[in-house]
């Protein structure tokens, strides 16, 4: 039912922001950012259960927890980058959002190198 809360908060926030856009344009962006933050808090609060479940599965399977932490960081960077880029686009700064996405992609690439290295080492041990 978290999805219903997210949809409800998003719809109320967008409607309120659009109502304020005509009379108080300075509040329009503030309401949109606040709505986005509230949605993120709702989503992240439900993510802890999922992350804990994956951690238990990995430890039961004998997978190195540092690799799992790296993958989680990469996923988090992807989500954060997408959120920041869409906020830039909402503010009319699409080109800045494009640069944020490029920085996120480079960061993901750099953070993925140790995971690829560990994978290659594991494969070399099997061969």
Please mark out the parts with pLDDT under 50 across 5 or more consecutive residues, or reply none: none
Structural class: mainly alpha
Q: Could you spell the SSE succession in H and E letters?
A: HHHH
Shape: elongated
- Percent strand equals under 5%
| Total count of domains | 2
User: Measured on Cα atoms, how large is the radius of gyration?
Assistant: 19 Å
How many beta-strand segments? 0
Instruction: Report the span from N to C terminus.
Output: 47 Å
Query: Main sheet?
Result: none
Mean pLDDT: 86
Q: If helices are DSSP runs of H or I spanning 4 or more residues, what is the number of helices?
A: 4
**Fraction of residues in H or I helices:** over 70%
């Amino acid at each position: 039912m978290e999805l219903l809360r997210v949809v409800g908060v998003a719809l109320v926030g967008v409607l309120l922001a659009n109502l304020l856009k005509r009379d108080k344009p300075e509040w329009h962006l503030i309401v949109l950012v606040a709505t986005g933050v509230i949605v993120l808090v709702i989503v992240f609060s439900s993510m802890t259960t999922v992350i804990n479940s994956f951690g238990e599965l990995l430890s039961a399977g004998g997978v190195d927890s540092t690799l799992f932490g790296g993958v989680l960081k990469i996923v988090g960077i992807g989500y954060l980058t997408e959120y920041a880029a869409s906020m830039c686009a909402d503010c009319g700064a699409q080109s800045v959002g494009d640069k944020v996405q490029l920085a996120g992609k480079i960061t993901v690439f750099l953070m993925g190198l140790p995971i690829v290295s560990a994978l290659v080492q594991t494969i070399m041990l099997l061969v």
